[in-house]
Amino acid sequence: MKILEIDGGKTLTGTVYISGAKNSAVSLIPAAILTSNKTTLTNIPNITDINALCDILRYLNVTVNEASGSMVIDPSNLVNKEIPDEYSNKLRASYYFMASLLARFGEVHMSFPGGCSIGSRPIDQTLKVFEKLGALIEEKDCIFHITAKELIGNEITLDMPSVGATVNALIVSVLAKGETIIHNAAKEPEIVDLANMLNKMGAKITGAGYETIKIVGVDKLDGCFHDVIPDRIEAGTYIILGALKGSYLNIQNIIPEHVKSLTDKMIDMGCDIVINDDNIIVNANDNIIGCDVKTSGYPGFPTDLQQPFVPLLVGAKGKSTVNETIYENRFMNIPYLNKMGANISINGRELTILGSNHLHGEEVMATDLRAGASLLLAALKAEGHTRILNAQYILRGYEDIVSKLTNIGAKIELIEE
Ligand code: EPU
């Protein structure tokens, strides 16, 4: 087990450089096997979720060459094999290979995807997309067998704007015959990034980033060169950290529009934030006031920042509420924050936070990636020493977190026990 040891309460100053977006990179990598030619991706974060996807690529006989943030994917010897549980259960995004293998070979055999335990996370919307394009789906002994003689474009309305189903719909339809229209599509910047890369490969996608996306199928795709967008959730996490303990903390390599729902909230709370073209500067401020937050799809307040945001509300004056509308199990950080001195009650999908509380160090446990980020922020704010058990979850999504924090003045160490 990995453990983070943190001596909290230090003032943090300097520059944090934001890495490429995890949730973009995890869809771009499976999309790269839609062609037999090489694709080069740059600004790929060095995190464990990416390593898990590369393991799947290599298992499928794809050559992957990685060098400091860039990755060359060569699928010229790609073999379509059943992807067993030991590969698929490492992360949610493994199911993007369902779409790319189905599109390339007309069949895919794969076990259920994994991912953080933050709710039930069904895949019915993706399966609906595949069926609408003409695929047959069988599930036997926990393995999906999905086959299609021919994939033919269709009009699909998603029940909810699912990120995963929109990614799979894009990947599976770019090589289908005719036109596919996705209604109620997810509008996240990572969807736009994927559509941009697919268009560079020769796909014909319009409307990504809007509710309706149109894809005109093409016969063949080519390799491309693509630079991954900055990670808005990593950026948001450090922006919150700036408001907790920053002294002129500069968060560099940001697309400010992508974190607007967060920065708008923080400005309303009285946080000291200066937004520039590609960086944001934050100073901690003891006079912030609480607020009400409700998570929703982009451009709303992201569920992935809900947990990291709570430590800020703990120190804010007055009462705050948090309403989590996307996942039913994203409050597992709360008992640990309370152990550290917060006053938070859970009522179904809503939190009530009675603020102005000081946090102190404790032994706590990360239960998933963003719960871990929440506890890490609390630990950096808290007086005294915190041990975060199961810190491997945090490494799934935050590149070089120990050195990035050490560089700005944090006392933090990663150990293995
Ligand atoms: N849903 C269904 N059926 C489906 C798909 C989704 O009912 O077929 C429901 C889910 O249960 C959930 C909601 O729809 O309640 C949204 O799920 P979505 O499919 O949008 O999420 P996802 O694709 O599984 C991605 C990110 C998550 C992020 C969500 C929401 C990746 C690999 N994961 O998950 O990121 O929370 O979108 O923005 O892109 C994280 O980075 O920590 C993380 C969990």
Commentary on this structure:
The chain has helices at residues 22-31, 48-59, 85-88, 96-105, 124-132, 163-173, 189-200, 232-245, 260-269, 303-315, 334-339, 369-381, 401-407, and strands at 2-7, 12-17, 39-42, 63-67, 70-74, 107-111, 136-140, 143-147, 155-157, 179-183, 204-206, 213-216, 225-227, 246-252, 272-275, 279-283, 292-294, 319-323, 344-347, 350-354, 363-365, 385-389, 411-416. It is α+β, with helices and mostly antiparallel strands and 417 residues long. The protein has 2 domains: 2-18 and 230-416, Enolpyruvate transferase domain (UDP-n-acetylglucosamine1-carboxyvinyl-transferase, Chain), CATH 3.65.10; 22-227, Alpha-beta prism (UDP-n-acetylglucosamine1-carboxyvinyl-transferase, Chain). The longest helix has 14 residues, at 232-245. It is globular and about 60 Å long. The model has no long low-confidence stretch (mean pLDDT 96). The structure holds uridine-diphosphate-2(N-acetylglucosaminyl) butyric acid (EPU). Uridine-diphosphate-2(N-acetylglucosaminyl) butyric acid binds next to helix 1, helix 5, helix 6, helix 10 and helix 12. Uridine-diphosphate-2(N-acetylglucosaminyl) butyric acid binds at residues 23, 26, 92-93, 116, 119-126, 160, 162-165, 186, 302-304, 326-327, 369-370, 397.
